[in-house]
Amino acid sequence: MSDQQFDVIIIGGGPGGYVAAIRAAQLGLKTACVDAFIGKDGKPALGGTCLNVGCIPSKAMLDSSKQFHNLTHTFNDHGISADNAAIDVGVMVGRKDKIVKQFTGGISMLFKGNKVTPYAGWGKLLPNRRVEVTAHDGSTQLLAATNIILATGSVPIELPFAKFDGEYIVDNAGALDFASVPKRLGVIGAGVIGLELGSVWKRLGAEVTVVEAMPDFLAAADADVAKLAKREFDKQGLKILLGAKCSKSEIKNAEVHLTWTDKDGEKTQAFDKLLVAVGRRACTQKLLADGTGVALDERGRIIVDEHNWTGAEGVWGVGDCVRGPMLAHKASEEGIAVAEIIAGKPGHVNLDTVPWVIYTEPEVSWVGKTEQQLKADGVPYKIGTFPFAAIGRAVAMNEPAGMVKVIAHAETDRLLGVHMVGACVSELIHEAVVAMEFHGSAEDLARICHAHPTLSEAVHEAALAVDKRAIHKAN
Ligand code: FAD
Ligand code: NAI
Fold first, then answer.
1. Same domain membership, residue 124 and residue 63
2. Which ligand has its closest atom nearest to the C-alpha of 425?
3. What number does the ligand 2 atom closest to the CA of 356 have?
């Protein structure tokens, strides 16, 4: 039997793969997408980590928990009170599952509409751009294409002394599905997942302790922003232990006993649940047969050049399984760029302007370089900052925490980085992304008329502050 032939086969149906598939099909290419993910209902589900156990379900749970937290903590400030506020975790998780199903099902519909052929099962790249698909029933099938896009994403890193058991020690998927609020939740890793999912359960009433090995909090973020965010998390009672190295975990009496060492010595604490969120690794095991010409780096990521080409004829890599930040929007942009390159168009992703957002309360976002990176690189810079406490809209919303920090080149005024912590900064950051994509300056932002009263006035004022001419604060 001859192989089923396509113009493009994509292995992986997450935001890298499914977006690449839709774009390739839009461009008239005969496209297939092979994905192995099985949803909570035991059926194949497109959308990868992002839609099934990542971006979307975590934001659904963040929103539910925020509503409860506001009802029990901040509505009183507005003169609103409600007696007997209660949580039904089952309903909350059910709502999240419904949203996930709506969006994963939506991708199936988009595939149908765009004539992308889906294959449910494991894809393995063979030499000469052939793909072996092992379906969930164990049957195999061979496909071939002129171009293959590897978009296999990432999986959580497991610690040898705290292996996931799905009951007491969980990964992100487990921590999105607790049946009730754990009384004591331990989290290993104060990274993005630890902070977001730690916040969810803290807001719902858990006592949350986050144990982080590094001495600095959120080392990837600008230090001023990280400091301010930490202060707010401390106020919320999110206990974050820095410089604490975990070495052992033990399950006894239906509790996880976690041991770590910090500057004060060794400590063991008992938790009802333990979330391990110490980073993710590229999902590239059992993906490549011998002789494909595709190479992996020391972290198991597919090696690609600046155009996402692996160096093997017609084989490309996008998203979490290649270098660069592990973010859904970065994966999607790479998927689009590669589909366009395959179709003979120019395709490019500027990794320097990929925005980062942490959906905590307050939110944290940034684009470009941090002050500490610029210092280390010896780049001359100037800074403007502005606090949300001086922004009328933020105060009216009862969300005065946080600030905007604009960093521009000391000589050319070109924007080098914009960092924010505060309400809705997940949305505000895009003004900075657009400005930086257009090679804008702090002066450009400063000269743009911003609507009053909005949170975006903090961006305007911070840009003015770069030249010491902010209006609503002393310069
Ligand atoms: P994935 O989404 O991981 O998809 C890869 C797909 O390929 C999966 O379905 C996998 O099963 C499948 N696959 C793997 N190997 C094979 C194979 N050999 N054959 C067939 N199928 C295969 N990013 C953001 O930008 N914003 C957020 O708010 C955000 N929140 C997150 C929250 C959590 C809890 C987590 C865990 C991640 C979050 N991320 C977020 C990161 C984001 O989910 C990833 O960056 C994104 O999903 C990467 O997309 P991808 O397509 O590269 O891979
Ligand atoms: P992370 O890399 O963000 O954070 C992991 C943290 O664990 C780091 O601070 C690290 O120092 C710490 N750590 C590592 N080993 C440790 C150990 N043995 N003991 C204690 N601490 C240890 O990884 P995380 O949170 O697992 O998330 C993975 C990725 O998923 C993120 O980097 C991000 O790319 C993506 N993501 C993005 C989100 C967003 O965009 N809002 C939300 C959630 C995840």
1. yes
2. 2
3. 40
Going by CA atoms, what residue is nearest to atom 45 of ligand 1?
327
- What is the rounded distance in angstroms from the CA atom of residue 284 to the CA atom of residue 306? 20
Cα 194 to middle of ligand 2, angstroms: 7
d(CA 197, CA 173): 10
Residue 162, in any domain of the structure: no
Determine if ligand 1 sits within 6 Å of the CB of residue 176: no
**The domain spanning residue 103 has which CATH number?**
3.50.50.60
Ligand 1 contact via 13 beta carbon (within 6 Å): yes
Given 278, 301, 328, the domain boundary residue is 278
Query: What CA–CA distance (Å, rounded) separates 347 from 456?
Result: 31
The model's pTM: 0.98
- Note down the domain range covering 248: 169-278
The CB of 50 under 6 Å from ligand 2? The reply is: no
| 136 is annotated as an active-site residue | no
pLDDT digits (tens, 9 = 90+) for 99-150: 999 999 999 999 999 999 999 999 999 999 999 999 999 999 999 999 999 9
Confidence at residue 274, expressed as pLDDT on a 0 to 100 scale: 98
Domain co-membership, 223 together with 189: yes
In this structure, are residues 253 and 167 in contact, taking their beta carbons and an 8 Å threshold? no
Mean residue pLDDT of the chain comes to 97
Let me know if residue 87 belongs to a domain: yes
CATH of the domain at 448: 3.30.390.30
Which of the four pLDDT bands, split at 50, 70 and 90, describes residue 1? low
Q: Which of 136, 348, 439, 452 is flagged as catalytic?
A: 452
Instruction: Please tell me if the CB atom of residue 171 comes closer than 6 angstroms to any atom of ligand 1.
Output: no
Reported as a pLDDT band with limits 50, 70 and 90, residue 3 is confident
Residue of 22, 20, 14 whose CA lies nearest to 52 = 14
* Structure-block tokens of residue 241: 């232990």
| Count of structural domains, the chain | 3
